[in-house]
Amino acid sequence: MTQTIAIGAYTDTDAQALTGELGALALPELAALAALPEDQRNGVRALAYKGHDPLGGAQMDLLPKLEVIANFGVGYDAIDVAAANARKVLVTNTPDVLTEDVADLAVALILTHAREVVPAAQYVLDGDWARGADLPLAHKVSGRRVGILGLGRIGQQIAQRMAAFNCPIHYWSRRPKDAPGWTWHDTPEALAANSDFLVIALVGGAETAGLVSAPVIAALPENAVVVNISRGSTVDEDALIAALEDGRIRGAALDVMLNEPNPNPRLLALPNVLLLPHIGSATVETRAEMGALQRRNITAVLAGQPAETPVNTGFGA
Q1: pLDDT category of residue 317 using cuts at 50, 70 and 90
Q2: What's the total number of domains in the chain?
Q3: Is the pLDDT of residue 315 over 80?
Q4: How many other CB atoms are there within 10 angstroms of residue 48's CB atom?
């Protein structure tokens, strides 16, 4: 009887590792859990989860002996941690291993948007360069003010990278941090007013939903670009789209958005928006490390040992 269920679209390598190391039973999606026979569900102690569908108390109750939900990814907003607490279920995630990749992508978004890399590449492919057509000038990055909304692990790495571009670093977090000459602002609005690039590096979930509100967007300078590598839920998307459509801000570069993978058609129609398909951690190396950490957390809990990266506390060894 398997003690582990793996839910989600895992790579062949991760799927084989989950089966080989943990004897996991693979399910394609969360909805398939209810279809399992009761005696099979009753033996499950660990759930490896890779998905965005809400995982709440109803799903946990289908697994009465569940001890751990190991999330594939640093963001665990799809998992109802309060429901897990009530059932004494440990939740783990995979932080740190993806920090550098996500920070790298944030810098790539800033550079790609500002320097108009995608239109310039298309200019060559379309033969416009050879025909001598005009290519509009792009915008400078070095020396521009970079505002980091959320100075956690990823936010700090983004700030360090952009400081190397001689960019003044501004940030907002719940309280000031020990930062090397970076400027703290006590509200997101104050940060926005001092940002040429506003980089959103928040955790997802109810506490940060809509934190980049209409007033925050209204506080941005006219030349500002919004960069989001966190969660689409952190932004009032209607307010952002309105500011982009009206030319109130220069643009946006988004790796995340609401209603993924079907973004708002108004976003798709905007020439001043760069959209990517949520690829912050999408490198071979990082995804392998994320899978390995997920499996180590499960292995530890099943062996009665502490998990490496718990989200909640007081459960397990």
Answers
A1: low
A2: 2
A3: no
A4: 26
Residue 230 phi, psi dihedral angles, 5° rounding: -105, -90
CA 241 to chain CA centroid, nearest Å: 20
Q: Based on the domain organization, do 63 and 168 belong to the same domain?
A: no
Report the alpha-carbon distance of residue 231 to residue 244 in Å, rounded: 19
Q: Is the pLDDT of residue 121 over 90?
A: yes
Claim to verify: residue 88 and residue 107 sit in the same structural domain: no
Contact 94, 293 (CB under 8 A): yes
Is 169:191 a contact under the CB 8 Å cutoff?
A: no
Q: Are residues 58 and 190 in the same domain?
A: no
Q: Which residues are catalytic?
A: 231, 260, 278
Average pLDDT of the chain to the nearest whole number: 96
**pLDDT digit string, tens, across residues 6-61:** 999 999 999 999 999 999 999 999 999 999 999 999 999 999 999 989 999 999 99
CA distance 81 to 129: 54
Per the structure, the complete domain to which residue 297 belongs is given by: 4-95+284-302
Residue 10 lies in a domain: yes
Which residues of the chain form beta strands (DSSP E)? 4-8, 25-27, 46-50, 68-71, 90-92, 146-149, 169-172, 183-185, 197-200, 225-228, 251-254, 273-275
Say which DSSP state 24 is in: P
CATH of the domain at 65: 3.40.50.720
